[in-house]
């Protein structure tokens, strides 16, 4: 092993492999959404791709594009002489230049493609942009087997998300975020989770899920006939695709609805701050219509 580490081509080959790997990852980010449900699932769980916006979060893109040059920089700190020697050779310059150019072109294409978004659109003051559209209505059933009309005017604002009880991916993060938000807001808001799997998520299954998560009286876990629930997903712009292994690749989103039944703010992704959500819900709770 030590002989390989001291070989003059060890560091150049390591950097070339890293550039090739990084270029391959970026190309996958560019073409992955069109490769099928398996690719979209990988992009959602690993790279922050949102099926709702069909775009990547900026932080995920920065992580994917900066890893390779940072790795090359670290290698260069330990193998500067070997890399300089490789660059002095004509073949080294050609191969190294081509690998670097390919990576830069791929990264620039991704950044300039329009497939990258920050977090929530903001105003100059830094607050989320108010939407104001009527929330789509749906007659569903909650985990206590009681009717609940999603989108109807209510005495409290709503925080709405879409999850399913057998999810092993992002759903627990969404529920945990809203549970932390509920602890800050108290009874001034309702927290609504619409199932993505109505065939399995019956009211008793949702009630058991609420018990495992210790979800209180301010929660409504909603289900209904599959056709109605699927129509609800579409009306709210939430895409969901069942994978061969039974998991569901889906958009991750939290939507705040005011007391008049209007969409107030939409937060895509799972990296939302409970304090920010709680502050927005508090403002909505104080509004007078």
Description:
A hairpin with a 5-residue loop joins strand 4 and strand 5. The protein folds into two domains: 2-117; 138-286, 3-Layer(aba) Sandwich (Glutaredoxin). Helix 2 (10-31) packs antiparallel against helix 4 and helix 2 runs parallel beside helix 6 (90-112). It contains ten helices and twelve strands. Helix content is 48%, strand content 17%. A five-stranded mixed beta sheet has the order 8-7-6-11-12. Strands 1-2-3 form a three-stranded mixed beta sheet. It has 289 residues and is an alpha/beta fold. The chain has helices at 2-5, 10-31, 37-47, 58-78, 80-88, 90-112, 171-185, 203-212, 226-235, 274-286; strands at residues 49-50, 55-57, 116-117, 138-141, 147-150, 158-163, 190-195, 219-222, 240-242, 248-250, 253-257, 263-268.
**Considering DSSP H and I runs of 4 or more, what fraction of the residues is helical?**
40-55%
Distance between the termini: 71 Å
How much strand? 15-25%
What name does the CATH topology of the largest domain carry? Glutaredoxin
Average pLDDT, rounded to a whole number, is 87
Spatial extent as radius of gyration: 24 Å
**What is the top-level CATH class of the largest domain?**
Alpha Beta
Spatial order of the strands forming the largest sheet? 8-7-6-11-12
Count of distinct strands:
12
CATH-scheme architecture of the largest domain: 3-Layer(aba) Sandwich
How many structural domains?
A: 2
Order of helices and strands: HHHEEHHHEEEEHEHEHEEEEH
Low-confidence stretches at least 5 residues in length (pLDDT < 50)? 118-127
General form: elongated
Which structural category do the helix and sheet elements fall into?
Answer: alpha/beta
Report the major sheet: 5 strands, mixed
């Amino acid at each position: 092993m030590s002989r390989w580490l001291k070989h003059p081509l060890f560091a150049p080959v390591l950097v070339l492999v890293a550039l090739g790997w990084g270029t391959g990852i970026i190309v996958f980010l560019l073409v992955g959404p069109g490769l099928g449900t398996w690719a979209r699932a990988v992009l959602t769980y690993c790279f922050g791709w949102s099926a709702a916006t069909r775009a990547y979060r900026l932080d995920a893109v920065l992580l994917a594009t900066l890893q390779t040059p940072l790795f090359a920089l670290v290698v260069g700190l330990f193998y500067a002489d070997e890399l300089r020697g490789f660059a002095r050779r004509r073949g080294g310059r050609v191969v190294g230049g081509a690998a670097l150019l390919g990576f830069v072109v791929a990264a620039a294409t991704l950044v300039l493609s329009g497939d990258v978004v920050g977090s929530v659109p903001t105003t100059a003051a830094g607050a989320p942009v108010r939407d104001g559209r009527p929330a789509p209505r749906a007659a569903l059933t909650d985990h206590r087997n009681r009717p609940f009309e999603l989108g109807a005017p209510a005495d409290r604002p709503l925080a709405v998300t879409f999850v399913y009880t057998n999810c092993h991916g992002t759903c627990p993060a969404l529920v945990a975020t809203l549970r932390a938000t509920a602890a800050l807001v108290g009874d001034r808001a309702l927290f609504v989770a619409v199932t993505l799997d109505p065939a399995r998520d019956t009211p008793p299954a949702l009630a058991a899920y609420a018990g495992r998560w210790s979800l209180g009286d301010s929660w409504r876990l909603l289900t209904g006939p599959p056709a109605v629930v699927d129509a609800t997903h579409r009306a709210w712009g939430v895409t969901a695709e069942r994978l061969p292994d039974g998991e569901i690749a889906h958009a991750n989103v939290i939507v705040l609805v005011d007391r008049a039944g209007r969409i107030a703010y939409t937060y895509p992704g799972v990296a939302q701050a409970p304090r920010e959500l709680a502050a927005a819900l508090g403002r909505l709770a104080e509004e007078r219509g």
